[in-house]
Amino acid sequence: MRKVDLCLSSEGSEVILATSSDEKHPPENIIDGNPETFWTTTGMFPQEFIIFFHKHVKIERLVIQSYFVRTLKIEKSTSKEPVDFQQWIEKDLVHTEGQLQNEEIVARDGYATYLRFIIVSAFDHFASVHSISADGIVVSDFA
After folding, report:
1. d(CA 59, CA 55)
2. What is the gyration radius of the CA atoms in the chain, in angstroms?
3. pTM, whole model, 2 decimals?
4. N or C: less crowded end of the chain, CB within 10 Å?
5. d(C-alpha 128, C-alpha 16), whole Å
6. Any idea where the F5/8 type C domain is (predicted)?
7. DSSP sequence for 84-95
8. Helix and strand numbers, DSSP H then E, in the chain
9. Is 89 exposed, middle or buried (0-12, 13-18, 19+ CB in 10 A)?
């Protein structure tokens, strides 16, 4: 089985929900593979988005590139619908003035069909997510 970036839209993933959207910086930018694009929150926290893989996957490593994110919670679901999310990872990120936060997480028990990312708090009124990468393998397609 080959390892791929499971979050890329070119691998079939999609952002199915985001609590805020700016037409110049839509949530789809998180998974488009383009380092020049990003999703921005529109103030007030928490903010969240859900990535749907359209298959069962095993995530081994996550890399999150963001700006101004203070506390991030990640929940996962193995259901066919976006329900029954379980708390998985919670991280306090370090503020990096003038450059992207680059948070790498080695994942344990990374089986999922959906990931929900919750930006609990930020270092400013707005935050941005530039990319989410999930290294791993496809376990099975939906039957």
Report:
1. 12
2. 14
3. 0.95
4. C
5. 18
6. 18-125
7. --EEEEEEEPPP
8. 0, 9
9. middle
